[in-house]
Design goal:
Layout: H1 12-27, H2 38-52, E1 59-63, H3 69-76, E2 80-85, H4 88-100, E3 106-109, E4 122-128, H5 137-147, E5 148-159, H6 166-180, H7 195-203, H8 214-224, E6 227-232, H9 236-243, H10 248-254, E7 259-265
Parallel strand pairs: 1-2, 1-4, 2-3, 4-5
Antiparallel strand pairs: 5-7, 6-7
Pfam family, one: Methyltransf_11
InterPro entries: Methyltransf_11, Methyltransf_Superfamily, SAM-dependent_MTases_sf
Protein name: Ubiquinone/menaquinone biosynthesis C-methylase UbiE
């Protein structure tokens, strides 16, 4: 038998794309992905306005836009939104949603680490739960800096989905026990059967395999050239509205997690 390594063109990035393509069919059924109340929508609006201000027709790029949840929030606030995602099934649902809601949001296929967007083009860039999946965040952050206008703002919404506290683990164990004996309501559908093993496999091989801590993300943003970087861990209002869709123990567990928003500014003098 030859000792020559087996070569393949199918790499981790392809696995990530295939995973999210497979997740598209049930993505909007999961609390924490789609929005299930006007109370939650208002909480998201307040977070976005806090860090980006109102839209006023400014151009925004929503990276890894998925089914368009954040894109629609930005559109609500008056931004002119382009959503970019590399999973065609996600884009199909995003386009259908925008058509149903008569929204003028542009959705197109693209890679968050190599957007192919023009230099100095967008006033704002948003993404939610993208950074933890990045294979090369240093490259990605440099790319985002490039396509922002001087003085433009990046808003990252993400979390550490690896490291859990003892209290969270205890709550989740009790919640599982309560569901098994039908003492607590079952979870809304989160992922098709068998997909969680794929999720764990991917998570073990991305850059932030040890968890995307806010301070580490902020450090890489500074390294890429962003300035005035602010970490906001006060997402409690959003988490409280989402918790109503789970049983009480899982709702409590959500509020213990390391989730955050990071705002970062492209220097006003920077032309890239």
């Amino acid at each position: 038998m030859s000792d020559t390594p087996r070569l393949t063109n199918y790499d981790l990035r392809d696995e990530i794309k295939a995973y999210w393509s497979a997740r598209a069919a049930t993505f909007d059924q999961s609390p924490g992905h789609e929005i299930f109340s006007e109370e939650e929508r208002a909480a998201w609006h307040r977070l976005i306005v806090k860090h980006l201000g109102s839209g006023d027709g400014r151009m925004a790029l929503d990276l890894a836009s998925g089914t368009g949840v954040i894109s629609h929030l930005m559109d609500d606030l008056g931004f002119k939104v382009t959503g970019l995602d590399w999973a065609e099934p996600m884009l199909e649902r995003a386009r259908n949603k925008a058509k149903t809601r008569t929204r003028s949001i542009t959705f197109r296929i693209g890679d968050a680490e190599n957007t192919m967007e023009p230099d100095n083009h967008y006033d704002a860039i948003t993404n939610r739960h993208l950074v933890w999946t990045l294979v090369d965040p240093v490259k990605a952050f440099a790319e985002w800096l490039r396509v922002l206008k001087p003085g433009g703002t990046l808003l990252v919404i993400d979390g550490d989905f690896v490291n859990t506290t003892l209290f969270e683990r205890m709550l989740m164990k009790l919640a599982g026990w309560g569901q098994r004996y039908r003492l607590l309501k079952s979870d809304p559908l989160h992922a098709p059967p068998g997909m969680m093993e794929t999720h764990r496999s991917i998570l073990s091989r991305v850059y932030f395999s040890q968890g995307a801590r806010a301070e580490a993300v902020a450090g890489l943003l500074a390294q890429a050239g962003f300035e005035n970087i602010t970490i906001d861990t006060d997402l409690g209002e959003i988490h409280r509205t989402q918790a109503k869709n789970w049983n009480v123990l899982k709702g409590m567990a959500r509020r213990t997690q390391h989730r955050y928003a990071i705002r970062a500014i492209k220097p006003a003098w920077a032309q890239m």
